[in-house]
Amino acid sequence: MKGVTREVITAMMLTIALGGCAQKPPAPKVEEQAQKYSDGELPLPDNYKSWPKFLSEVQRPDNKQVREIYINPTGYETKMGEAFPNGTITVMEIYKAGEAADGTPLKGPDGKLVKGELQKIGVMAKGAGWGESVPPELRNGDWVYSMYMADGKTKASDDLNTCRGCHLPLKDKDYIFRYDEYFQKRAS
Ligand code: HEC
């Protein structure tokens, strides 16, 4: 009996030890990498859905879209009035607004557009010196941009300079649209 027990225990310990060896170290996060990213190189972090929400159900009737925005824990540390620290990543899911068969927008009981199909996912992140290679007239501080299709892997065909052009006037808000709305909602 004793022998069997010892064998079982040895086998268990071996399993634990081997299991430990077989485990790959987790991929370094964007904010931990010394690497500099340029537009289009920024990967979509696969855990972004577990991050704090930046804003939910952003209504874009002009584009027939509903958007969901997330911010990573590093960015979440930011207080109103501050710029976001290096290592901040924001992710924006762009959904087609739901439509009835006749093309009229579908609305929920609260009068809001409802989310249809996920179309694209945009990413913005900043790191020390990341903006240096960008021409000054297009520089958005140290933010860089990527846009993916709904699978989160296929690059969308967007010209990433258009991202810069539209976010550029938001310099006073660290290039983030809805900066005030976010901090006001968080405070309330
Ligand atoms: C015509 C203007 C315009 C262009 C072009 C644009 N954006 Fe934005 N972006 C916005 C607005 C406005 C918001 C805030 C959410 C909203 O109202 O839809 C936003 C929000 C975002 C956010 C969420 C964080 C934040 O700043 O609020 C990300 C990420 C983002 N955009 C990425 C991109 C990427 C990537 C591109 C280029 C492929 C791009 N944007 C092009 C206007 C623009």
Automatic annotation (TrEMBL):
Start and end residues of each Cytochrome P460 domain: 45-177
Matching CDD domains: cyt_P460_fam
Source taxon at top rank: Bacteria
One family name in Pfam for this protein: Cytochrome_P460
InterPro entries hit by this protein: Cytochrome_P460, Cytochrome_P460_sp
Protein's name in the database: Hemoglobin
Species per Swiss-Prot/TrEMBL record: Nitrosospira multiformis (strain ATCC 25196 / NCIMB 11849 / C 71)
